[in-house]
Write a structure and sequence with these properties.
492 residues; Archaeosine Trna-guanine Transglycosylase, Chain: A, domain 4; Rossmann fold; 3 domains; six-stranded mixed β-sheet; globular
């Protein structure tokens, strides 16, 4: 006998918790079904007969329409289910007043309190190249300065990228803004900006985009004007490290800025890892902290539920603008808005974008959405903020860091070694992944299937506090530190 999960009463499908063969008996809690074919773990089976053209429901919402007759016990996937998504929509605001339990815990962590009152989870020196031409120069400076300063600061890291030249207008502005916001991050006790000299993304313009209060912690270097740019860069990093020297202090969860992200999802992501992260989101918001969520295309099909959580009409209008704007971005490039999920998602059991979205948005918990910010902007208020960015792992995680996230919770059903500028906690949706890839995964959310959410919530909150206090993530141990910039314009 095999267990399956029905997310909500009235759903027409259930999700299998392990690989099954034809003829296996499935206990859905309400009935016993016999499988009509082999079905992998994380995939769906029909609970009742579904007629062609009828909605297939999961999480209490439609995840698409049946393209063929589906019998009870049938495998429901790409062969008999397709998306119902189209283009931009007119939305109505139906505010929800669903209560969110106040945070009952009094979690603390040890962070670096900055002069402006923000709290970093690391005390590092960041090196930001203005242009790809000096990316390797920045990396050489970081490697040598990091060895010299080992034990005196948490690390010296260069964040290379291929942009900054041959860009125009809005596209160039986006590159400049994401770098300017990264330069303001509280995990960076100081920032060295390295330029070439002749690029479109000129150092002076980039520094002007950085608020005046932050500039005392900024140093600049123009390679074309330097006799030895690496030696000069090392000296500037050592100067910044001396200015950044400080000790960790105990602070409350209200001083944490949490970014939430999913990548390489599977059919269990919306049942284990994502709802578990949603509970962490509510925990941080309830304590008075900040949570940032993004991946706008992975909201399509679930956006109305998010819109109904807007704190007021102005926030609702902003969500509608971002969602429809992103849909139009797809349409303008001749792509369907449903061009998702990825091949890995499909293998893992996710069939349509609606299904992926309804699982993905659970990372944002149930708290009201209090603000919406554009790509490259920094979070400006406590509570839950929606950030404009695509679903791409590296681009969206970089945007979360630039927005001010000091820890990122990254859920995955497939696994990835990628790491980003801030501590990124990889959370496996299934225990098999956690056991196979301990060098990638920091936390096993598969445990909720056996133990329930209560113990997993406590364990994950303890993990977050420990990592915010200095314990390395798997990605940090592996030296995985990357940024990626969303390029939206022509290249000269």
């Amino acid at each position: 006998m095999v267990d399956a999960v029905i997310v909500r009463a009235g759903d027409s499908v259930a999700t299998l918790l392990r690989d099954c063969d034809i003829g296996d008996r499935i206990d859905t809690g309400d009935a016993l079904l016999t499988l009509t074919q082999a079905v992998p773990r994380g995939h769906k089976i029909a609970l009742d007969a579904i007629a062609p053209g009828a909605d297939v429901t999961k999480y209490g919402y439609s995840i698409g329409r049946a393209t063929d007759t589906i019998a009870p016990g049938d495998h429901v996937h790409s062969q008999n289910l397709s998306t119902g998504l189209a283009g931009t929509l007119d939305y109505g605001f139906a505010p929800t007043d669903e209560p969110v339990a106040a945070s009952p815990r009094h979690t603390t962590f040890h962070g670096y309190v900055r002069p402006d009152g923000r709290v970093g989870t690391r005390n590092e020196i960041w090196i930001l190249p203005t242009v790809g031409c000096v990316a390797r120069t920045a990396e050489r400076i970081a490697t040598r300065a990091g060895a010299t300063l080992a034990g005196k600061i948490d690390g010296v890291h260069a964040f290379s990228h291929p942009h900054g030249c041959s860009q125009l207008g809005h596209d160039l502005d986006g590159t400049r803004q994401i770098l300017a916001s990264l330069a303001c991050h509280p995990n960076a006790g100081g920032v060295l900006i390295v330029g070439l000299g002749c690029e479109e993304n000129q150092i002076n313009a980039l520094v002007e985009a950085i608020p005046a209060w932050r500039r005392p912690a900024i140093r600049t270097l123009t390679a074309q004007l330097s006799v030895d740019e690496v030696e000069e860069g090392i000296a500037l990093v050592e100067e910044l490290a001396a200015l950044a020297a400080c000790e960790r202090q105990e602070v409350g969860l209200d001083r944490l800025v949490l970014g939430v992200k999913c990548g390489g999802s599977d059919g269990l992501s919306g049942l284990t890892a994502n709802p578990l992260v949603g509970r962490m989101s509510d925990e941080v918001v309830g304590a008075g902290g900040r949570v940032i969520f993004t991946e706008i295309p992975e909201m399509f099909g679930a956006e109305q539920a998010l819109m109904n959580r807007a704190a007021d009409v102005s926030v609702f209008d902003a969500i509608v603008g971002v969602v429809n704007g992103f849909k139009q971005y797809f349409i303008d490039h001749g792509e369907p808005v449903s061009e998702n999920p990825s091949p890995g998602n499909v293998v893992g059991g996710i069939t349509t974008l609606e299904e992926k979205s309804l699982g993905a948005v659970q990372k944002a918990g149930r708290s009201p959405i209090v603000d919406v910010i554009g790509y490259g902007a920094q979070a400006r208020t406590d509570g839950l903020t929606m950030l404009e960015a695509p679903g791409n792992d590296a681009v969206s995680s970089t945007a979360l860091a630039a927005a001010g996230a000091t820890v990122i919770l990254f859920t995955t059903g497939r696994g990835t070694p990628l790491g980003f500028p801030v501590p990124t906690i990889k959370i496996a949706s299934n225990s098999d992944l956690a056991q196979r890839k301990p060098g990638w995964i920091d936390f096993d959310a598969g445990q909720v299937l056996d133990q329930g959410f209560a113990s997993a919530e406590t364990a994950l909150l303890d993990c977050i506090a420990a990592i915010a206090s200095g314990r390395e993530t798997a990605a940090e141990r592996n030296g995985e530190r990357e940024i990626a910039i969303w390029k939206r314009g022509v290249t000269l």
